[in-house]
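Researcher: I've got a protein sequence and the SMILES for 2-acetamido-2-deoxy-beta-D-glucopyranose. Could you write out the 3D structure of the bound complex as structure tokens? I'd like something to compare against our soaking experiments later this week.
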Amino acid sequence: MKTVFSSISKLISFILLLFVLFSCSTFTSTEAYDALDPTGNITIKWDVISWTPDGYVAVVTMYNFQQYRHIQAPGWTLGWTWAKKEVIWSMMGGQTTEQGDCSKYKGNTPHCCKKDPTVVDLLPGTPYNQQIANCCKGGVLNSWVQDPGNSASSFQVSVGAAGTTNRTVRVPRNFTLKAPGPGYTCGPAKVGKPTKFITADKRRITQAMMTWNVTCTYSQFLAQKTPTCCVSLSSFYNDTIVSCPTCACGCNNATDSASCVSERSSHLASAVTGPGKSTNTPQLQCTSHMCPVRVHWHVKLNYKEYWRVKVTITNFNYALNYSQWNLVVQHPNFDNLTQLFSFNYKPLTPYAGLNDTAMLWGLKFYNDFLNEAGPLGNVQSELLFRKDASTFTFEKGWAFPRRIYFNGDNCVMPPPDAYPWLPNTGFRPVISLLQPIMTMLASCVFLWAYM
Ligand SMILES: *[C@@H]1O[C@H](CO)[C@@H](O)[C@H](O)[C@H]1NC(C)=O
Ligand SMILES: *[C@@H]1O[C@H](CO)[C@@H](O)[C@H](O)[C@H]1NC(C)=O
Ligand SMILES: *[C@@H]1O[C@H](CO)[C@@H](O)[C@H](O)[C@H]1NC(C)=O
Ligand SMILES: *[C@@H]1O[C@H](CO)[C@@H](O)[C@H](O)[C@H]1NC(C)=O
Ligand SMILES: *[C@@H]1O[C@H](CO)[C@@H](O)[C@H](O)[C@H]1NC(C)=O
Ligand SMILES: *[C@@H]1O[C@H](CO)[C@@H](O)[C@H](O)[C@H]1NC(C)=O
Ligand SMILES: *[C@@H]1O[C@H](CO)[C@@H](O)[C@H](O)[C@H]1NC(C)=O
Ligand SMILES: *[C@@H]1O[C@H](CO)[C@@H](O)[C@H](O)[C@H]1NC(C)=O
Ligand SMILES: *[C@@H]1O[C@H](CO)[C@@H](O)[C@H](O)[C@H]1NC(C)=O
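Model: Sure. Here is the predicted complex with 2-acetamido-2-deoxy-beta-D-glucopyranose in place.
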């Protein structure tokens, strides 16, 4: 009897596996798509504002329309390929990283002669006569929800050998946006209606000669092969602390001393600041999960009508500070969050009826800066939820989050059967059949959301 049942359940799992794989492959597309921010994109707008004897002057602006994904220091780099033999005579508010071969120009030398220039933002403190509006923030581009006033970045470019009418100008090709690593994919430039500008006194409207837009979207799958954060759980009703899954972001290789640094290492100072260490190579603290960031969710208190959670974000990277960090958390009780202490909060509703997702970020000048690993390398807050009698329960891990993103990247959750249980309940998670299916579904959603 038992063997019959087990073979039937195996058959069912197999059929479900086939079904899940099939639906995965039908939903998976090469377009980047984030289910919680379906229209999230960075739009690059290229406005030709005047013609010159041999080309034009354009203002290029990047708008970050992503709800919760930003670009932090060391900032963006933007590249493209010229369609003809264009050169950049001069720039304001930005510069190319390489000049290239300008040897055929005598006297007046262009700023850049490369066929595929790469532009970076200028640093704060650039002299005013080299600035334009929205420039000079070291390439930092904040997210649309967190800081809309700082979610755009501009530079001005004077292009030569380019054509001087809207019929002879060719739009550049192959835009590449890096943050500064990979992750973004940019579509082709689309010529559209010329932008209208309102003068400062609001009494006159001017118009660009030509305008084209490029849309870039992000995919975590393209950005890195390993996750960058993980989630650990605990509760007042069970002493067990469910730590991040072992090897969630990589494995601690004891024989390879370069892979991480131990907290107590006497060589720490030299390991962190030693010559030849780029500030971008992680100096990870050795942990079982090897994630640069851990989010801990502690179910702290149970009141009659409310319950309280403490969230702690810990940085395990000795070589990286996170400015303007953010979390996206999915939990059914976010439809009725009553109070939040020392974080900012905004509900995210990508679809009508979806009200279980929230974005959390730090208070300006208080905890919006997550310090490098060490005693200061954590931020925390408490959330107070109002119980809804029809859904609230401490059973079956209901009080724990369903999904967490840190800075827009999905965090690795512990397996559902490891969640802390209520003591003295007969409850055992139904893992035999349900769990592999849930895992498959979760990975399907993950693939679907990121490919
Ligand atoms: C980019 O984002 C803006 C603002 O959310 C949206 O209006 C636009 O449709 C998006 N573009 C694409 C191509 O998704
Ligand atoms: C060029 O400008 C003319 C006059 O403004 C306009 O009619 C035409 O559609 C433009 N062509 C292109 C390719 O933008
Ligand atoms: C643009 O990129 C594609 C694919 O990487 C390449 O095949 C093509 O030659 C590039 N075009 C230009 C103008 O560089
Ligand atoms: C380009 O993008 C900007 C910002 O989203 C938008 O206002 C403008 O209408 C777009 N123009 C074209 C030609 O698509
Ligand atoms: C650990 O690192 C050493 C040296 O880099 C390497 O030879 C070995 O294969 C690694 N082991 C694992 C399990 O990754
Ligand atoms: C992180 O910030 C602290 C305090 O502002 C600073 O002392 C430290 O050098 C920064 N670390 C890195 C890697 O930038
Ligand atoms: C949240 O969504 C659920 C399901 O769509 C709905 O039943 C509930 O009333 C919503 N709650 C709020 C506060 O909108
Ligand atoms: C939150 O829950 C309380 C009690 O269940 C209810 O009265 C209130 O309307 C809810 N608020 C929202 C925004 O759903
Ligand atoms: C706490 O939860 C763990 C599962 O994570 C379980 O093994 C343990 O028995 C629970 N403790 C109590 C006292 O129920």
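Model: The chain has four helices and 26 strands. Residues 13 and 19 are 10 Å apart (CA to CA).
Researcher: Great, I'll pass this along to the crystallography team.
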